[in-house]
Amino acid sequence: MSALQKLQEKIEQWRVDHEALKSENAQLKVELSNVSGSQSQQEAQIATLRRELEEKDAEIEKIIAQVESLLA
């Protein structure tokens, strides 16, 4: 096998490896985008649940105040 053939084989292998890495990189970018979107949805849901909890706490405080006024 000549040096030129060996060099051509190495170049071809590097090209194949490069294409595989590009494909894997694209796939990882998609996965990262999906995770980021999912995280944003979870953060929005947490914010909504916190607001609901604050509203419920306010309702409970109001009921307690009414009960205390009835008992007084």
Describe this structure in words.
The chain is mainly alpha-helical. It is built from one helix and no strands.
Helical coverage, percent range: over 70%
User: What series of H and E elements makes up the topology?
Assistant: H
Total strand count, please?
Answer: 0
How far the N terminus sits from the C terminus, by CA atoms, comes to 103 Å
Largest sheet: none
CA gyration radius, whole angstroms = 31 Å
Secondary-structure content class: mainly alpha
Features:
single chain; 72 residues; mainly alpha; 1 helix; 96% helix
Give the SSE layout.
Blueprint lengths: L2 H69 L1
Explain briefly what this protein structure is.
This protein is mainly α and 72 residues long.
